Structure formats: C-alpha cells, structure tokens
Amino acid sequence: MAKRGDSIEIDVDKFADKGLCVGRLDGIVVLTSGAAPGDRVRALVTRKKKQYLEARTVEILIEGPDRVEPRCRYFGVCGGCTRQHVAYDAQLFAKQMAVLDALEHRGGLTGIAIEPIIGCEPPFFYRNKMEFSFSAWKWLTPEEIASDDSFERGFSLGLHVPGNYEKALDIEECFLQSELSVAIVNETRAYGRANRLSCWSTRAHDGLLRHLVIRHGVNTGETLVNIVANGSADDVAGLAEHLKATFDAITTCVSTDHRGLAQISDSGERTVHWGRGAIRERIGDLEFEISPTAFFQPNTRQAEKLYGVVADFAELTGSETVYDLYCGAGAISLYLARAARNVVGIEIVEDAVRDARRNADLNSITNCRFFHGDVSEVVTESFVTENGQPGVVVLDPPRAGLHPKTVAEVIRIAPKRIVYVSCNPQTQARDLALLAETYSIIKAQPVDLFPQTHHLENVALLTRR
Q: Which residue range forms the structural domain that includes residue 42?
C-alpha cells in the first residue's frame, strides 16, 4: 500500500463529498482533490488511513469527458467553488447520485422515487450574500509567487484559502455574487490601501477592518453593505461615505463594532450609516425584510423553487395546522400560511424569530405564530395541546440533522404528512431511516441552490402509515 509522499496514478470514478473525487489503487480507495470523474491523474499521497488514502492531484494525465475550463482565475486556490472545472450537467448528475447514495447506503432505504434535480439557470451570479475577509497578511497565488512583481502584503480583502484563516486571497473577480458586489470589494480595497487603513491580524489581534458583508435583493435591486470592524462607527465613517459617493446602487450601509477574537461577522454593536439598515427581497408574492445578520436562503431564485416543492408536497387544503420546525426567519412558514389554517414556527435563534414576526406583519399574515427555543425542548404535549395538532410538519434542520428527541416527538405528535428539507443528504438519510419505522417515504426532490459546489438541498415527503 502506498504511503504518505508517494506519487501515484489513478483513474477517477466519481465525486465524493466536499469536492473530493474517488479513485482506486490496487483496490484501495483514494480520495483526491483537484480531479474530475473520468480523469486519469497523477496524485501525491498526503495521508494514509486504515481503509483508504488521501491525495492531492498534481497533474491531469487524461482529461475526463466532463472536465471544462474553470471560468474563474482563482479556482483551485479560493475555496468558494469546488466543481467549477466540471460541466454543469455533470454537476447536477453527481448531486442526484449523492442523494441516491445517501438514501441507500447511509439510510438503508431503497426504492424511493427521486425526482430529477431542479437545476439553477444561470449557474453563476446566484448568491445574494457574500462575506469577504480583510487580512493584514496576503495569500499569494502560484502565479504571483512565480512572477517578478512586488505586492503590497499589509492590506488584503477577499476570501480565505481552505484551511488558512490567517491570510486572505485578494479577489478581484468572482462569479458567485453580482458584478456590483465585486466592484464594491475592489473599491473598498483601493480606498483602504490609499488611506492606509489597517486590517485585522489574527496573530497580533489588532487592526481595524475585519469583514465586508454584501447582501443583494435579486428581485428588488436593493443592496446592503456591512463593514465589520475592530472599532467604532466613527472609525469607518470615511469608508462608508466613500462607498455612498461611489455607488448609487448601495441602498444602505451599516457597520458592526466587533472587538472579540472570534472571526465572525454577526456579533457586536451595529450602527446605520445611511438607509434603513436592512434591505427587502421578494419571493413570489411575499416581501421579506433582511437585516445584516438575518438568515435568508443565499440563492433567491432557487429558494422560490424550493419553497414551491415544499408547498406541493404539503398538499394543504386550508384546514391544516402546520408546524414549521427550525423555521429560521419564517420564509417557509409565510410561504405556506395562505394555504393553511394556521402555521406554528419554532426557531432557536432569537433574532430570526424577530425577523419572522416582522416579515409576517410586513405581508399582513395573521395566521402565523413564531416561538423561540430548541425544537427538541419546545414541542411538548402541552405545547401541542395549546397550539393544535399538526396535520403537516415541515422539518428544515441545520446540517447536523434532527436530535433523536425531535425524531421521537415528531412521531409522537403523528402528523399525516412530513416534509423534510435538508442541506445534508447524509444526515437526512439517517433521520429518514428512523422516521420510516412509522412513515412511508413517498419521494424526494433535490434542488441545486449552490452551483459550482458540492452542496445541495433535498426535500423528502413522508406520509403516516
């Protein structure tokens, strides 16, 4: 068996999780980065495990039929995309197979009808939110290292290379968010360097600028910029005013004073420099107010398709009580409300509950109630007695899936239909296997909200036997 540091040649069979691909060497599974199904590659073994090898592709010997030229010059260095080197049809096929594989191998579930995945067109410029990082340390690309150019290293603004949160890769183009977003990033970088603003250093724990968060209303055209700084609103007022003078399209600008060590953008005192401090977005006939830290599906157009699948699976007649567990800012709750008798949403993030209530008011929806708390603790017998027996339960948990107590409680309250939305087919399959002891799994519908990456959403319909 090969060992760490060995150079090996393998034929790549298929995608694995997290952007890796699977090949075999003398019957041993090899997980390698930088490859595509159908490739023959030379790879360097980086880690030896008991049952498989981990490797890094160093040369493409034969290109597979689905390999394409990546659109972005940062692909392979930046971690924003993991599959941009693969034709989009092949990306969709891989995600369809990922759902099937999870159901059969993780859940032990066979014979479930999986509808063809709903793709995203166009598969670029789809993100309504991007979070960029400032750094006092610049990550140099291989081309920059090989060149004779000199680079200013004390001020960088872009994205982190996977596994390195100290340095930032300067991003001058990106095909995930809008062209306006890229222009704002480039102008911010130019202003910061020209005015000798400092960037946060994870080594010294000092420096002013930490994050630049840009949110865009795809259907409204509104744009929010959040400058996250290790300093007060006055410290970044010059940058904020410069952005206002440069970009008429920026609807509102806020800054967040975050003095802690954690590299997060959603903590600290927030100041509105101009505008409402939030933007609005439309999905269908609903309007949502999105604050700087509110959760909102990052692909607006695909979110509408996702919510449409949930509504189709729920088959509401107007007489049902719906429980929306892990309801976030209430998007699915509000989408279903006009077809239901009433909707009860539960969410552990208090800010999201406030957003949900505000969005219900914004849309004049009065048959939704939102509760703050942990689903596994809130949904008790007394809660059901007070809020009504649900005919439909919508589950949309985080990537870790359902707590075992939640699975047991859902089975106990016995809704006729369960609509399970998941961003992680593996944990969803695990949970479906537990629910399948009482419920029949009718079908699944994958939806691609994240082109050029390995991520997807999958919706499963269950009915009580």
A: 7-62
Tokens 């160093």 found at: 58
Structural domain count, the chain: 3
Token representation of residue 308: 């449409």
Per-residue pLDDT tens digits for 307-344:
999 999 999 999 999 999 999 999 999 999 999 999 99
pLDDT at 148 exceeding the cut of 80:
no
Helical ranges in 82-129 per DSSP H: 88-101
Identity of the residue numbered 55: A
User: How remote is the C-alpha of 300 from its chain's centroid?
Assistant: 12
142 has a pLDDT exceeding 80: no
Token couple for 121: 């067109």
What CATH number does residue 164 fall under? 2.40.50.1070
Mean pLDDT of 94-123: 97
Helices (H), 276-349: 300-314, 331-337
Respond yes or no: is residue 423 known to be catalytic: yes
8 Å CB contact between 221 and 249: yes
CATH of the domain at 17: 2.40.50.140
